[in-house]
Design goal:
Length: about 375
């Protein structure tokens, strides 16, 4: 931008000097301050770069809201297709990519919804997918199966509001079987002999699943049976939305024999546990996924969700988009999904004809 600005100013000064020396050589109706072709092209480049700069600044601001440092990890804008986004390639490395999505009816594996997003994260499409299915087919799905990435608090709440039974892998934050913190009376401490079996988190501290939440008393109990009472509310940004998080804090960590394993050595306050309004929905989902019915229902997802991608890539030979621009890529993806659906439909009709004993009709001319 600085180089273009300097070049533009120099060429403008030369043009002004030439205009002042002579008024001849103009086309009919052409103003003296008409930009020569070289300057006009330069101005277009400068305006285009300014638009790109504004786009990158907006993306950096969005990354900042997500908790990312734009200085260390700035936004990137592909030159060939500014609608695309630099994402990891499944074969390795990074490139300008889009993320195509499909939703299928697992009873027949027909595609019932498809979309393309310029983002590696698909969770923002979960609820819109349900809404589009209802709009196009006149009814909502009874069940909705999705991978772990879709299990955000907003999606859990949205599915409940839509009366759709959601299935997505999720672990409970409450102590489970095999965790010594799971005990009948959480006010009693875990036996010292069982301390080594208490789960640790990524920071090698006692995991949140070591703390028992008691709804009646609205507090947590640590492995030593000490209370973590509600202290304050923090507002944090998750998935581009501001969420109110309740903070529960222990006031008696100083003389606790598990303090070194529970808190950071630099901690100035007692151990804290965070809980947002979606926690009950996560517990409900975790319990659903642990049932035999939940596991059997979710087992249908792998074939239904992955088959269209495998077929389009391997059988149809499409491993990359031919067009550029988000809307063009969306159109291309819809054609591919339509081709897949038509082939499925033809196979289904052929199977139905064979089942009914209707062979191919004879033709006489």
């Amino acid at each position: 931008m600085k180089e273009l600005d300097g070049l533009f100013e120099r060429l403008m000064a030369e043009a002004d000097q030439a205009d002042a020396q002579s008024q001849e050589g103009l086309f009919p109706g052409e103003a003296v301050n008409h930009l020569p072709a070289e300057l006009a092209t330069l101005e277009q480049r400068r305006q285009k770069l300014q638009e790109i700069l504004q786009t990158l600044q907006a993306q950096d601001e969005a990354r900042r809201k997500e908790g990312k440092n734009p200085q260390k990890n700035p936004a990137q804008l592909p030159q060939a297709d500014t609608d695309a986004k630099v994402m990891p390639n499944k074969e390795g490395g990074y490139a300008a990519n889009y993320t195509p999505t499909v939703a299928t009816d697992v009873s027949r594996d027909f595609i019932v919804d498809c979309e393309v997003v310029a983002d590696p994260n698909e969770h923002a499409q979960t609820l819109p997918t349900v809404d589009r299915i209802e709009e196009h087919f006149g009814q909502k799905p009874e069940n909705f199966l999705a991978d772990t990435a879709h299990g955000t608090g907003e999606n859990l709440a949205g599915m409940q509001q839509r009366n759709v039974t959601f299935f997505t892998p999720m672990e409970s934050s409450q102590p489970q079987e095999g965790n010594p913190a799971r005990r009948e009376d959480p006010t009693q401490p875990v036996a010292e002999a069982d301390w080594p079996q208490l789960p640790r988190n990524a920071q090698n501290q006692l995991d949140k699943s070591c703390f028992v939440y008691v709804e009646q008393s609205q507090c947590y109990y640590c492995p030593q049976g000490r209370r973590l009472e509600f202290a304050e509310i923090h507002r944090v940004t998750r998935n581009d939305q501001e969420v109110a998080v309740r903070v529960y804090r222990c006031k008696s960590c100083e003389n606790c024999p598990l303090s070194a394993a529970c808190r950071s050595p630099k901690a100035q306050r007692g151990r804290q546990i965070y809980r947002d309004l979606y926690e009950p929905l996560r517990e409900e989902m975790a319990a659903r996924m642990q049932t035999a019915e939940g596991r059997a229902t979710y087992a249908h997802r792998m074939h239904g969700a992955e088959t269209p991608f495998a077929h389009i890539k391997q059988v149809m030979g499409v491993r990359q988009f031919l067009l550029r621009g988000l809307e063009n890529v969306r159109t291309e993806w819809r054609w591919l999904c339509t081709a897949f659906a038509l082939q499925k439909l033809l196979n289904a009709v052929a199977a139905l004809r064979a089942h009914l004993g209707q062979g191919t009709a004879s033709v006489v001319i």
